[in-house]
Amino acid sequence: MPPVPRRDGRDRPFAAGRRxxxxxxxxxxxxxxxxxxxxxxxxxxxxxxKLDLIRFDPRxxxxxxxxILLVYAFINRPTILDFGPDRSVVRRFLDRGFDxxxxxxxxxxxxxxxxxxxDFVVRYLANCVDVVRERTGSDRLHLFGYCTGATLAVIYxxxxxxxxxxxxxxxxxxxxxxxxxxxxxxxxxxxxxPRHLVEAFGNVPGEWLALEFSLVDPVxxxxxRYLRLGEHLGxxxxxxxxxxxLRWGFDSVDVPGALYREFLGSLAHENRLMAGRLSxxxxxxDLAALSMPILSLHARDDRFVPPAAGLPLLEAVPSGDTxxxxxxxxxVGLSIGERSHAELWPRVCEWFARRxxxxx
Length: 360
Description:
alpha/beta, two-stranded antiparallel ribbon, disordered N terminus
């Protein structure tokens, strides 16, 4: 396959070859220094502005011919997908023989307040897809989005279906007319105007977002979980795992002001994606282009993104190969739950493997 031309970023030149744990952060450039959480080693193979594209070291001989690109959400840090050696989505795919890449959006600075859906989808994500295709020689890849990253993945796949072998969605935010969940509430309840927050801060502070999410169930997130932690102080494994999860939840990143306005305006308030009226990169995002196999994973007890926020997508696409899985856990439990890794993720890996050219 011939080299794919890529569009340049604004603040940082392309760079490759840096060794990086998933949670690596620099103290400069708007990035905060954090200790290690993710344990799977990887290499930054493409860097653009604050974004890092990470390719994880193989753990076994490659058996699946189509690479997989994990598109993380732009709200928290992606360490939840590499939570620990025994509860790592990244490792589940590596152990099944996939070539695994992940988009880490980084954290925006005040230079990035004008970045919106056009930048995130048709520039940054498009460049990452092209890098993976160029490195692997694969014309198409498995695109797998998490939460708001699933929103971006759906938009990209509808604009560039010829580059996507399958579309995987984990707790996807697509249908904003769903009852319950944080995005539906922001979209429909009260006269909330996201412009006020953006005008005050430029980028939306991660601390504000963490507070907003905790208000979905304030008793649970401000009282009950700490009481449970106190009851298990003699269980070192429970304490360590709970503290890692708390740390991830509090460590929300800022969101570019323009992206926040578009997400709560065109998407949440007007539900344009499902209505077929969303325009990104000068093109209308047509869900009728999603004819590739689609797997959609949902948590039955998800307080943030209920299954109804994603399931209607499967009824709106022409694909003849779709599957929805509703698993008995919560939003974060999909990625780090013990039962999820014992029962759900082997099934997910097999789903992608069966749809990989050259899989064994």
